[in-house]
Amino acid sequence: MNQRKRSWWRRIVRAVGLLVLLAVALTVVAGWTAFGHRAEGARRARMERSPHWKNGHFANPQPLDNDAWLTIRNMAHASPYRSPTQPIPTLPVPSDRFATSPPSGLRLTWLGHSSMLVEIDGHRILTDPAWSPRASPVTFAGPERWFPPLLTAPIVQEKLPVIDAVVISHDHYDHLDYGTIVAMKDWNTTFVVPLGVGAHLAYWGVAEDRIVELDWWESTHIRDLTIVCTPARHASGRTLFDNDTKLWAGYAFIGAQHRAYFSGDTGLFPLMSDIGARLGPFDVAMLEVGEYDAAWPDWHLGPEQAVEAHRMVRGQLMVPMHWGLFNLAYHGWTEPIERALAAAERAKIDIVTPKPGQSFEPGLPPVRERWWPDIPWRTADQAPVVATQMKKPVMP
After folding, report:
1. Which of 290, 388, 360 is nearest to 63 (CA)?
2. Contact in structure between 164 and 222 (CB atoms under 8 Å)
3. Which residues are in the Metallo-beta-lactamase domain (predicted)?
4. Pick from 45, 110, 187, 208: CA 20 to 30 A from residue 374's CA?
């Protein structure tokens, strides 16, 4: 290569490098507040006293397995149906739907992904609300949502008399959304979060006296409702430098007459049987079924293992969640619900398939409408997801 060509290539490499640095700098500036805040002082000291805090971060009893080469291979063979090509049918939330309590005492409304409005024995709980256009710290990049939010901060206050608790499972962007928290920071509600996550909320303007941080198996009370923080097998982090410095969790909601379980994000792990034995049986189990891959089998349940988890926690009605809103994995967008239905039928488990925005009461005939399109998807035999370090085999 002659001197002129070498000089030309050096200029190109420098220009590309400068553009990359500029893009990183713009992203850091734009997302700085949304990245959240580290835990300090008494909050940090309490975290470090947790039996799950080891060597400067939280740890799962069964570590997460990741296969980088399999990830690359699966990425190269990703489904061409990862996102919908037509608008997803949703149901509007009328202003009078929540004017009265559900006759059965238990009603759920799926708002998309892991966001649920749970009405249980006179209390209202909102789980993992994420209402921004993207699951991202910035507005110009990151996974876009497939339909507009069915509730927003002003609307929810107009349509609902009160939200007793906003419950957050962990601090990943599709579960803890900066814009949503800022919009509801002045609500007269209690924010229930795992250890350390309160640092983000306080940084974004939520009053400390309305933040309740819990370790696994700890609980808090809202009138006669008990909220128990349950173990999960997952991770946390909003930047490259804070991985697992906040805890992740699921929750059990225990009312006077009913019990509900919310898995958050989790892989399959033995302690799910303990959750069922100590806190179940549950009238309803909200379990994540989407955003899975064989390359990271411990991060998410996947459909078949969600059915196994339903058995382990002693659920009666299974509610699939964590699908149908974002493109976060390599499978087709309808594959999670197709496989969950097939697995539930084999296991003879009651399962519901509500549209986003649809309310249902577990004590009534289940909602089972096939509202999604019929597109190709891989079966459990074609693309199995099996968690590691489980003492017993899971359902095939």
Report:
1. 388
2. yes
3. 123-323
4. 110
Instruction: Find where tokens 């792990």 sit.
Output: 269
Which of 383, 295, 375 is closest to 83 using CA atoms? 375
User: Domain span at residue 333?
Assistant: 41-360
Q: What is the pLDDT of residue 99?
A: 80
CA angle 86, 89, 91 (to 5 degrees): 155
Task: Tell me, yes or no, whether 339 lies in a domain.
Answer: yes
Residue 366, amino acid: P
Q: Which of 329, 336, 81, 40 has the alpha carbon at shortest distance from 196?
A: 40
Percent helix, percent strand, percent coil in the chain, to nearest 5: 25, 20, 55
Instruction: Give CA–CA dist 25/379, Å, rounded.
Output: 42
CATH code of 74's domain: 3.60.15.10
* C-alpha–C-alpha distance, residues 106 and 257, integer Å: 9
Residue 263 within a domain: yes
First and final C-alpha spacing in the chain: 58
Q: What's the CA gap between 383 and 362, in Å, rounded?
A: 31
- Going by the DSSP 8-state scheme, the letter that residue 144 receives in this structure is B
Residue 143 CA, chain-centre distance (Å), reads 14
Distance CA 256, CA 248 (A): 27
Q: How many structural domains comprise the chain? A: 1
- Chain position carrying tokens 């000291």: 45
Please tell me the distance from the alpha carbon of residue 379 to that of residue 23, in angstroms, as a whole number.
Answer: 40
DSSP readout, 324-354?
A: SS---SSS-TTHHHHHHHHHHHHHT-EE--P
pLDDT digits (tens, 9 = 90+) for 278-296: 999 999 999 999 999 999 9
As a whole number of angstroms, the distance between CA 84 and CA 74 comes to 20
pTM higher than 0.85, yes or no?
yes
Question: What digits encode the pLDDT tens for the residues 306-358?
Answer: 999 999 999 999 999 999 999 999 999 999 999 999 999 999 999 999 999 99
Does 379 map to a domain? no
Question: How many whole angstroms separate alpha carbon 328 and alpha carbon 275?
Answer: 28
